[in-house]
Amino acid sequence: MAVEHASERLVELLSRDDALQDQWVDAVAATLGGRISRAELERELTDLYQALTQALGKGGLDWRGEDYSEVRALLVEMSRTRARHGFTPTETAVSVFACKDVLAPTTDSTAEDITAYLQLTRLLDALGLFTIETYARAREEIISAQAEQLLELSTPVVKLWEGVVAVPLVGTLDSARTQVVMEKLLQSLVDSESEHAIIDITGVPAVDTEVAQHLLKTVVAARLMGAECTISGIRPQIAQTLVALGVQFGDIVTKATLADALRHVLHRSGAQQPAAPSTAGGDR
Amino acid sequence: MSDRVPILRIGQVLLVSIQIDLEDQTVLDLQDDLAERIVATGAGGVVIDITALEIVDSFVGRMLANTAAISRMLDAETVVVGMRPAVAITLVELGLSLGGVRTALTLDKGLALLERDRTARTARP
């Protein structure tokens, strides 16, 4: 079979000369512009080179086969590291494609060698695509992990006073986030037995009808549980937008600033106010 | 014969602690029992504790509102206490805001609320 023959010939070509490996490392190092140390690159590519030669010898040209599992594992590791260090897809894939150049046929190559080279090109193309796919997957994993972290970080529920919790909202509100805010706020009301909650929307750049609807729902749900919600930090433009949209907050207390809201809440809950800090702010 | 929810009396307050999943018949029985007990005891307040309630449908939601209305007609203020966040969210999504029902986070706070109400009422001429 011609294919088997080609792979045997390739193994021969690849193991003939140690200089080939160095040429490969040189070619890759040139494209990466010194962002990976040469020693590291050499180690990476030597492993890959050996694995590839071995796989060619054993498993022919079928890169999906069992014999290529080590090559694939090495490629996965490489593209993950590249993705994490912020290399571009081109810079990642070039590590594989550069192997073609070092074996490029010259005018004195035999027809057999050229056939073998063409087979290798096909194989390396497949491996290159595999690298890019892994790279993209690694990037997506990073992005989704970050989005999740952001969701967790962006909704802290802080205790302002005995029986008063606040949620300072920062950034754009969408349904998913508002849902998280709602659940966290209600849960913290139960956990801390707080009767008052302040939702501060100073950091929210835009409020549309949907967001307003979510805010209203949160307030109503808190009421059902026996807690009062105050909304603070509505900026002038947002107030204008809300009125233009026809949103009405009804009997929900709204205050301009978080400080006003806290003062209001403390005034309302008067009797439950702890005595200790009253020397500083006793004339409220 | 379905289970009946016990109605306990503490001073001037009737305490209904719902510990089981509510079936429609249980809910109706409870409404009857409660109305009778309010009249029999002359209670000034009703506390419905739903801390153990994990699932609420629109029927139970409406029942809470109805019970509050009935009690008020019999001169007893109703406070629903211990609603879980998930239950509150469900009720809001169902569009039930339980207008006219007073709520408190815990049984303790609910009783304190009724107490405050009563002193305020007796203070008025």
UniProtKB/TrEMBL annotation, chain A:
Keywords per UniProt: Phosphoprotein
InterPro entries registered for this protein in UniProt: Bact_StressResp_Reg, RsbRD_N_dom, STAS_dom, STAS_dom_sf
PANTHER family, per the entry: RSBT ANTAGONIST PROTEIN RSBS-RELATED, RSBT CO-ANTAGONIST PROTEIN RSBRC
A Pfam family it matches: RsbRD_N
UniProt cross-references to PROSITE patterns, sorted A to Z: STAS
Domain STAS: 154-265
Record protein name field: Anti-sigma factor antagonist
Origin: domain of life: Bacteria
TrEMBL record, chain B:
Name this polypeptide is given: Anti-anti-sigma factor
Domain STAS: 3-114
PROSITE patterns with a match to the protein in the record: STAS
InterPro entries, per database record: Bact_StressResp_Reg (IPR051932), STAS_dom (IPR002645), STAS_dom_sf (IPR036513)
Gene3D superfamilies: STAS domain
Source organism: Kitasatospora cheerisanensis KCTC 2395
Domain of life: Bacteria
CDD domains noted in UniProt: STAS_RsbR_RsbS_like
Record-linked Pfam families: STAS
